[in-house]
Amino acid sequence: MPHGPAEVGVGPWDGPQPEGEQYDAGLLAEGDRRNVVDRYRYWTLEAIVADLDTRRHDFHVAIENWQHDFNIGTIVRSANAFLAAEVHIVGNRRWNRRGAMVTDRYQHVHHHPTVADLATYLHDREVSLLGIDNLPGSLHLETMTVPRRVCFLFGQEGPGLSEAAREACDGTFSIAQFGSTRSINASAAAAIAMHTWVREYADLSGEDAWRG
């Protein structure tokens, strides 16, 4: 059995050099070891972002950042996987990027000092703001109709949405749980919410729905 980590990506380009402004000369010469799907092998970062921009989805993701929660990076990574329109960091400008695995480079990430600033930004663009929290009056995600133009707002691990966030939201929803714990991990909840949008609105008929 082989030992050691599997080699990621591809080596130097073999054969005649491909033509096109999307290709990165350095990657062609040295290999592309980034965690990207095959369609983007050897492409420049700018070319990948430009291509993603042609087919981003209509949902946004926002995360409160008061305690430098380690979940923020993981949520950003999921936002990239499900191709969110934009990612919003609310509160502290600096955030823990470790869990993002550099996927934030492919997203449009905006900072807002307060949730009120975020709400103004979204409403100016006719995007609804929905928070996730197990609050009285929260709708069941499993039975509600998620708006097409929506931003999912997530609070910190533990305390959940801040009071200011609850007041700024157009509504809140909860994820059904049946066990003994009071809550699920924030990044897991975010992935569930984003995938709910994908099931409702995403086009799964073409090659853009990557299957592995």
Q: How do the strands and helices of this protein lay out in sequence?
A:
Elements (H helix, E strand, L loop, with lengths): L24 H6 L14 H9 L5 E7 L5 H11 L5 E5 L17 E4 L2 H9 L4 E5 L6 E2 L9 E5 L8 H6 L2 E4 L11 H16 L11
Parallel strand pairs: 1-2, 1-6, 2-3, 4-6, 4-7, 5-7
Helix pairs in contact: 3-6
Mean pLDDT rating: 93
The count of helical stretches stands at: 6
**Main β sheet profile:** 7 strands, parallel
Number of strands: 7
Radius of gyration: 19 Å
The helix-strand sequence is: HHEHEEHEEEHEH
In terms of structural class, how would the helical and strand content be classed? alpha/beta
Helix content: 25-40%
Approximately what portion of the residues adopt beta-strand conformation? 15-25%
How far apart the termini lie comes to 24 Å
Please tell me what the overall shape is: elongated
State the low-pLDDT regions, or none. Answer: none
Main β-sheet, spatial strand arrangement: 3-2-1-6-4-7-5
Detailed description of the structure:
The protein has 212 residues and is of the alpha/beta class. The protein is 27% helix and 15% strand. It has helices at 25-30, 45-53, 71-81, 115-123, 163-168, 186-201, and strands at residues 59-65, 87-91, 109-112, 128-132, 139-140, 150-154, 171-174. Strands 3-2-1-6-4-7-5 form a seven-stranded parallel β-sheet, sandwiched between helices. β1, α3 (71-81) and β2 form a beta-alpha-beta unit. The longest helix is centred in the C-terminal third of the chain and has 16 residues, at 186-201. The radius of gyration is 19 Å and the shape is elongated. The two termini are 24 Å apart. The mean pLDDT is 93.
